[in-house]
Amino acid sequence: MHARKRRKEEGFTLVELIVVVAILGFLLSIAIPRYLTARTTAAQAATKANLHQLASSMELYMTEHPGEGDTYPDNATSWLSAYIPKAPVPPAGGTSKYKYKQLQKNSPGDSYAIWDPNPYGGKYFAAGPGGAIGEGNSAEDAVSNATGITDPDLSNPVDLNW
């Protein structure tokens, strides 16, 4: 009788294990989507902050160099390092770089765009003159929302890397 009692207390029953696995599965089904949403939200916030920093540096350059007219420079990497010691990297990481292009060169609405080529949560982000941040379903939409330029030409951009 004593041996029988000890064997009964040695482990968990199948029902107990199934209940524990079900509870863990339920908790994970709640935690994982929240974690992924938080990650996407953090990447979007980091992208907006980086774009705002780059656009602010662009505006500071234009303020400090009034003799160069109202035309934004063709190649932002040649002078941005004076304002930002190291080029910010998009949250996507890897070899990805923020993109820059002067838009409407030598026209009354001379403008520029800085954008992230990576979508976060299905959204693209861009910055334009005055530090305006735009978002959209494509890089072109984001640039258009940031600059007010419809159908912007984003071919041959400059990688912001120094």
TrEMBL record:
- Tell me where it resides: Membrane
Q: How does it sit in the membrane?
A: Single-pass membrane protein
Q: Tell me where the transmembrane regions lie.
A: 12-32
> What is one GO biological process annotated to this record?
protein secretion by the type II secretion system
Recorded GO cellular component terms are: membrane; type II protein secretion system complex
Region (Disordered) spans which residues?
Answer: 136-162
Name the principal localization, coarsely classed.
Answer: membrane
Q: What InterPro entries does the record point to?
A: Bac_GSPG_pilin, N_methyl_site, Pilin-like
Record key words, sorted: Membrane, Methylation, Transmembrane, Transmembrane helix
Q: Name one Pfam family in it.
A: N_methyl
PANTHER family recorded for this chain?
GENERAL SECRETION PATHWAY PROTEIN G, TYPE II SECRETION SYSTEM CORE PROTEIN G
This protein's name: Type II secretion system protein
